[in-house]
Amino acid sequence: MDWLAVTCCTAALILLFLPLGASQDRLVPGKPLYPGATIVSDDGSFAFGFFNPSNSSGARASLYLGIWYNNIPDLTVVWVANRETPITNITTPVLSLTNSSNLVLSDGDGGPVLWTTVVPAASSSSPSTAVLENTGNLVIRAPNGTMLWQSFDHLTDTFLPGMKIRIRYDKRTNGGRLVSWNSPDDPSPGRFSYGGDPNTLLQIFLWDGTRPVARTATWTGYMVKNDRKYQQDSTGATITVSLAVVNNDEEIYVTYNVSTDAPHTRYVVTYSGDYQLQSWSNISSVWLVLTKWPSTECNRYGYCGPYGYCDVAVPTCKCLDGFEPASTEEWNNGRFTAGCRRKEPLRGCGDGFLALQGMKTPDGFALVGENKSTTSEECASECGRNCSCVAYAYANLGGDKSGGDVTRCLVWTGELVDTAKVGADTGSDTLYLRLAGLDAAAGTEVLSCYFFCLI
Fold it and tell me: Which residues form the Bulb-type lectin domain (predicted)?
């Protein structure tokens, strides 16, 4: 039957909104992709094509171009190309790979372009191929195998194994955030997002619009490969998730992988505002939530108020050493937004510093000596000679990377907000807190011993 004839029939249009018909794993120039056909990864894990998230039909139905899990019954989309420009009232939507090596989504009757990739002109001298890999990554490759574009560089709401969330990056790569769907049936960008802090490049946030929901600890330079095991349920699979923070000359990024025998596993920013680790249960045929962030009210951003901190081992709010609840009545009733106040006012530069180990350092810091190496003593001096400085933290970010040390000196001159006690967890910091009654000279002597006596 002729394709144009099919698209004119409303009854048949319903079928076009469903991901049907497996095909090969690639798209080539001259062979466009239409609704109803899909490109499937070589191992059958992922499919790429047109979908309708609400399964609605008729003139007002919206089509999207995306990637989803191909071998589970619940349609779960992991990437959307045209999430801001849905296909509506178009007779013949079509995706083509052009001779300039770009994917172009348009109306086949000569209508407007709804979405396109941007491949550098210098890379497009020969026809290329768009391949859906077994990882769920859609890649445009030149005839010589060079990667010209990949969907993994253009985040939507899902963080798949092998993807990168870049904290620091150069002009040749994309940073970006994971951004939630607007609702279960609407892939357009929603309220919530997850990604690196563009101001400091040292921490990751979960945002509600521009308001922080949760924040990680500031990066301490660890080259981590942190394996964590999760059990789906009493009868389900055990999944090992290997998280890593990688630092090289071009970028700092977060990535992860899962054990080879694990079921489908993904991180996702939900439309309701959680960052969840989900795995597909082949027993119950549902997505199980293995963990989510924030996991408790205590570790929501600023929950314990100024100079309060979340003790994650309990979890509960406490006051930093030398502080007490600003309102004892509110604190005893479980309301912590007022935070804590000093028991004794600072005298100024004559006060010393108390070392608080195993801390998630507060937000709102200033980065001292960016792009140059400093010593722990220089960092202490930077805060000590500034009578408005209330705390500082120091770390060596160089790790085993060649080319010398890369250090990090943070200082705080305002209220300390969103602090936590995380113990000896990877990436914990020592926070040096200025307190009344501590002798400045003695504090400096103890500080020097802390850095060198632990070696």
Answer: 24-153
- Interatomic CA distance for residues 46 and 38, integer angstroms: 10
At which of 133, 152, 171 does a domain end? Answer: 152
Residues ≥6 apart with Cβ < 8 Å to 251:
164, 166, 167, 168, 169, 170, 173
CATH of the domain at 235: 2.90.10
Structure-derived torsion over alpha carbons of residues 166, 169, 171, 175, reported in degrees to the nearest 10: 20
pTM: 0.86
Domain encompassing residue 89: 1-152
Residue 58 DSSP class: S
**Domain containing 23 — which CATH number?**
2.90.10.10
Both tokens assigned to 443: 């504090």
List CB contacts of 157: < 8 A, sequence separation 6 or more.
Answer: 178, 179, 180, 181, 190, 268, 269, 270
At 123 the pLDDT is: 52
- In tens, the pLDDT along 193-231 reads 999 887 777 889 999 999 999 999 888 766 566 789 999
| Cβ(148)–Cβ(120) below 8 Å | yes
Structure token pair of residue 61? 């139905």
